[in-house]
From TrEMBL:
Residues 3-242 form the NmrA-like domain. SUPFAM superfamilies: NAD(P)-binding Rossmann-fold domains (SSF51735). This is NmrA family NAD(P)-binding protein. It comes from Streptomyces silvisoli. Pfam families: NmrA. It comes from the Bacteria.
């Protein structure tokens, strides 16, 4: 049995490989792939098979996925190239005869109205069109997206966003990775659609309150119109197109598009998800 993980040089994919190893999968049964295999050399040192896979290179993908029984398809970063990239990866998984493709999608990808959701919806549709046995891991936001912002939040004494009072079921990357490993190592997931998110959703006002409690300082939430939020992000150094996509994602949050009350994530991993309070405490330690 061979389990291929794409994006293993990235943060989620790396954690997924670790979670597979933790679950007792033999290193030689795991194929960790990335565009730059020097970045995943430590997996090779531990006996994991390491192969180069660039979704822009179909021939290379065929070689990278050879012998794949199951594939974890981690969505790629460049939003405007994402769908074409994913289609090439799905074609290569079909050519390899994979018995399962687990795709890291996004909350409510079938109905959500954001730019990001549209790329995931197109990928989900292509999986169906190709008839490949698949399971959809519809991830909500990462808790780390907010933890990475903490130095700025503390400096400004404000969380800034455009998500209104929308509920966000953010969860830790490690929890999503563990769920992926469970799906890849247990039976009964073909055709399943998991809406994955933290057990306790929060608003950005709630995030500000949680940071205040741990930091011992008053942090407030400033809700901006989406265009002003996008401008604030570009002022902070983000490229304009990414700022636009992120502001659009916040608008989706204001409509609860990143909220799920499914309990799928804690059910899959067999424990409560990492809480916001614990994540903030760990980040500020
Ligand atoms: N739920 C959320 O809050 C959230 C937030 C941000 C992103 N995401 C999505 O979740 C994915 C994983 O998140 P992450 O934090 O692990 O992101 P990350 O650390 O940026 O990792 C992205 C991975 O995708 C790989 N990749 C990018 N383009 C590729 C291509 N053309 N061919 C092959 N591999 C390619 C990267 O490989 P290289 O090392 O070669 O660049 C890297 O391994 C992201 O890519 C994005 O689609 C979700």
């Amino acid at each position: 049995m061979s389990i291929v993980v794409t994006g293993a040089s990235g943060q989620l994919g790396r954690l997924a490989v670790e979670a597979l190893l933790d679950r007792g999968v033999s290193a030689s049964d795991i194929v960790a792939t990335g565009r730059d295999i020097d970045r995943i050399k430590e997996f090779a040192d531990r006996g994991v098979v390491v192969r180069r896979a660039d979704f822009a290179d179909p021939d290379g993908l065929t070689a990278a996925f050879e012998g794949a029984d199951k594939l974890l398809l981690v969505s790629t970063t460049t939003v405007d190239e994402r769908v074409a990239n994913h289609r090439r990866a799905i074609d290569a998984a079909v050519a390899a005869g994979a018995s399962l493709v687990a795709y890291t999608s996004m909350s409510h990808a079938d109905t959500a109205t954001t730019i990001l959701a549209s790329t995931h919806r197109a990928t989900e549709e292509y999986l169906r069109a190709r008839g490949v046995p698949s399971v959809l891991l519809r991830n909500s936001w990462y808790l780390e997206n907010y933890m990475d912002q903490l130095p700025l939040v503390l400096r400004n004494e404000a969380v800034v966003g455009a998500a209104g009072q929308g509920r966000i079921s953010a969860a830790a990357r490690a929890d999503y990775a563990e769920a992926a490993a469970v799906v890849l190592t247990t039976e009964g997931h073909v055709g399943a659609v998991y809406e994955l998110g933290g057990d306790e959703a929060f608003t950005l006002t709630g995030l500000a309150t949680a940071i205040s409690a741990v930091a011992g300082r008053q942090i407030s939430y400033t809700d901006l119109p989406a265009d002003e939020f996008a401008r604030a992000l570009t002022d902070a150094g983000l490229p304009a197109d990414l700022a636009h996509v992120l502001a659009d994602a916040d608008l989706g949050m204001s409509r609860d598009e990143l909220f799920t009350g499914s309990g799928d994530l804690s059910r899959l991993i067999g424990r409560p998800t990492t809480s916001l309070a614990d994540a903030v405490a760990a980040a500020l330690r």
